[in-house]
Amino acid sequence: MRVLIAEHDHARYAELLREAMPELEVLTSNDSAELSRQAPQCPVWLGQPDLLASLLRQGHKPEWMQSTWAGITPLLAEGLPRDYRLTRAVGIFGQVMAEYMLTYMLGHEREVLSRLVSQVERRWDDRPGRSLEGRKVLIVGAGDIGQRVAEFLVPFGVTLYGIASSAR
To answer: The whole model's pTM is what?
Structure first.
C-alpha cells in the first residue's frame, strides 16, 4: 500500500511509518508539484490539512486521509470534496495547548510585554500585577484540549465555564 505524506516534517513522519510498517511504500516531498504528481498513486494521505486541502483543490482525492492536526478547518472550505474517510489527531495536543494557553493568559494579566519595554527603557514600572484568581474563563470545546486547559486553570482560582456540542 502507498501512503502520501504532506507535512512540513515529512521526513520524520516517513521514518516513523517505515519503522512501524516496513511493507508500506511511503511517498513524500517538500515540493508541492511533486506531491501533486504523487497524490493519485496513493489511496492514503497523512499530513497537514492546509497542504492536503491544496491537493484536493487540484482534483486529487484519497480513500482515507489522516490529519496531523486536531483541527480540520482547511478541509471544510467551499468546493472541496468530502467523500473520503477523514480521521484526525486527538488526545495528543492537550498538554501543549494548555501550556500555550496558560502562557498567554499569564502574560496578558501580568502585562509582561509592557513591563519588558519598561525594563529595556530602564524605567521602574510600579503598577500592581493582576492575577487570574477570580477571573471568569469560557472554554469553547470540551474535548481533550479544553479539558486540559481547564485542569491547568483550576489551581489559579478561576471560575470555569465550558461549551461543548454534547454533554460531558
So the answer is: 0.74
